[in-house]
What we know:
Blueprint lengths: L2 H9 L35 H16 L7 H26 L17 E5 L6 H8 L5 H12 L11 E5 L2
Antiparallel strand pairs: 1-2
Helix pairs in contact: 4-5
Amino acid sequence: xxxxxxxxxxxxxxxxxxxxxxxxxxxxxxxxxxxxxxxxxxxxxxxxxxxxxxxxxxxxxxxxxxxxxxxxxxxxxxxxxxxxxxxxxxxxxxxxxxxxxxxxxxxxxxxxxxxxxxxxxxxxxxxxxxxxxxxxxxxxxxxxxxxxxxxxxxxxxxxxxxxxxx
Length: 166
C-alpha cells in the first residue's frame, strides 16, 4: 500500500485497497456506477417535470375555494366605503362653503363705518346702543367685534374702534 492510498484509506472508509482509486465516493451503492445523469440513482430526467405538473394540478384541484372571513369582508368593503365617504364630504364642504364673498368686485358692498374713541368707563354695549339705537344691541356689538377683529368684548380707554353707521 502506498503512502497516498494509506492516507486516503483512512479518510474514506472502505476505499483503500478496493481498487476504486483515491477519489472514490463514500456513498453506498455508488461504486462502479458511471458518471453522468443516467448513473444517478433515483433521478429520471424525463419523468421529473411531468410528475411536478401532475402534482401541481392535483394540488390546485384539491384546494378549497378562497373564503373571506368577516373581518376580511369588513376590510375589503368597509375601508373603501369610508374613504369614499370622506372624499364626498370633503368635496361637498369645499363646493358649498359660505366663504365666497362675491363673484365680482362690483357685487361687493362696503359697510359704512364711523371711527369712535373709547372713553373711560365705556363698554361695547354702551357704544353699540348710542351708535344704532334702532337695531338690536347684540347684533351691533357683534358687528363691532367683527369690524375691529377684537378677541372679546373688551375695549381699553383711548382705543379707536370702527362702528357701523347705519
